[in-house]
Amino acid sequence: MTKHLARIFLLLSAAFLLAYYLPFAWHVLTARRARVPFVQYSDTGHGFLFTRYNISPETRDVSIRYTDAAGRAYERDAFEQMLPLTYFMQLEKNGAMPKTINGVKITPSAIRREMWSLRVRPDSLDTPAVPLYTVFETDSGRARLEMPDDYMRIHKNGRVEFLSPKTNKVLPEKSALYTEAFANAQFAFPVTALGSKPNPRKSYDEGIYIADANGQLFRLLQAKGMPRLARIADTAADPDAWRALRPRHIIINEIETRELRAFIIDDTGQPWLVTGKDYRLIKLPVTNYNPTTDSLAIRANLLSRLVLLQKEDSLEAVALDRNYTVLDRHEEKIESRDQQPAAKIAKILFPLRWWLVDSDSGYFGFYTKTGAACSLALNAILLLGYIIFLKLRRHNLRAQLPEYALIAIGGLCGLIAALLVPRVE
């Protein structure tokens, strides 16, 4: 009896490990990256332009095609001339850089100053974070920001603490000062969302955005050692929109022009930009953005902004002017991983799969996935083949019931486990 129990344990262990390693090996050997085009928007009237990459299945050589939305192909030089705000260095070298575009004077310094980008991926949102926050001194008299000697921690009960990493002790005076500032601002605990950029290598400090239990967003700064905590809705150009906003994720993005201050995703998954001196809220005009699975990118230049939303099987591009009014929109289908032939075969070969690391999350977890319905037919064929194999070897068929169940459920992984683990008659 003990031998049979031990073998059942070995069978389950082997099948469990094979359900991880076999699909992983199959993916490494067969999967290929989706060929997503690099999308740009022409400010000279040529609409959306694409750099498309093709890989030869025979030689694996990569070829590049430059096309427009209608599919017309261009030579590289002609393509770059339609995008002067992107390839301005090459056009300057060729003597082909225009002096003005749509009445706006074009200079290299202006192009560099107005160029910024932001990219938001699912794993950057769902990732572990240490609840210690850097509060920069914004009025130190120095030309650059400097890292402080302490870190802030916010408790659910409303207590704010500052910790010294050198002594590993709480700084009572500063902690009491900030706790009082939160109380005076009528901040409702606990914190529901927080965003900051703890890097002194930036042109200025936007501070820390903190959402309270009521969804109201506050901005925390420190000037001359004193906290400044204020509700953004009280000073913003559109206070009603701020009061209705319920942030889930906040990303601070300090740029020199201070056009973009922060990127916010609310509790419905809608993305927003916080722009300008009056903290104007801009609702990004993208379709069905899902922050848990989709990637969002924004690229800005002197004349326009380009928003890119990449889903598993589609790509959406939206061109906006400086006032964030829609200029043009483009959508196209892309090949998802599940649509690849190797992925379809994997769904048949592996009725049960599991893994620990997911591309959409920064956390370790236990993720599972079932195969296609037709994998049950393959399981039945493998089970029948295994029974015939045992009969030809003159084994006791009734003694192999655990193997039958394992193959019926686990398919190929169960069959390999049954063949590897020695049988007990």
The biggest beta sheet reads:
5 strands, antiparallel
* Cα Rg: 29 Å
How many β-strand stretches? 24
Q: Which oligomerization state do the chains in this entry correspond to?
A: single chain
Give the count of structural domains: 3
**Unreliable runs, pLDDT <50, ≥5 residues?**
none
Terminus-to-terminus distance = 11 Å
Strand content: 25-35%
- Describe the global form: flat
Mean pLDDT: 91
Q: Class by helix and strand content?
A: alpha+beta
Helix content: 25-40%
In DSSP terms, counting alpha (H) and pi (I) runs of 4 or more, how many helices?
Answer: 11
* Order of strands, widest sheet: 7-19-20-21-22
Structure description:
- The chain is an alpha+beta fold and 425 residues long.
- The protein has eleven helices and 24 strands.
- It has helices at residues 2-30, 76-81, 88-94, 108-113, 122-125, 172-184, 239-244, 341-349, 375-392, 401-410, 412-420; strands spanning 38-42, 47-55, 62-68, 73-74, 100-101, 104-105, 116-120, 151-154, 160-164, 169-170, 193-195, 208-211, 217-223, 226-231, 247-252, 260-266, 271-275, 280-283, 295-300, 304-310, 314-321, 326-333, 352-357, 364-370.
- It has a five-stranded antiparallel sheet with strand order 7-19-20-21-22. Strands 1-2-3-4 form a four-stranded antiparallel sheet. Strands 11-12-13-14 form a four-stranded antiparallel sheet, covered by helices on one side.
- The protein is flat.
Topology (elements, then pairings):
Layout: H1 2-30, E1 38-42, E2 47-55, E3 62-68, E4 73-74, H2 76-81, H3 88-94, E5 100-101, E6 104-105, H4 108-113, E7 116-120, H5 122-125, E8 151-154, E9 160-164, E10 169-170, H6 172-184, E11 193-195, E12 208-211, E13 217-223, E14 226-231, H7 239-244, E15 247-252, E16 260-266, E17 271-275, E18 280-283, E19 295-300, E20 304-310, E21 314-321, E22 326-333, H8 341-349, E23 352-357, E24 364-370, H9 375-392, H10 401-410, H11 412-420
Antiparallel strand pairs: 1-2, 2-3, 3-4, 5-6, 7-19, 8-9, 9-10, 11-12, 12-13, 13-14, 15-16, 16-17, 17-18, 19-20, 20-21, 21-22, 23-24
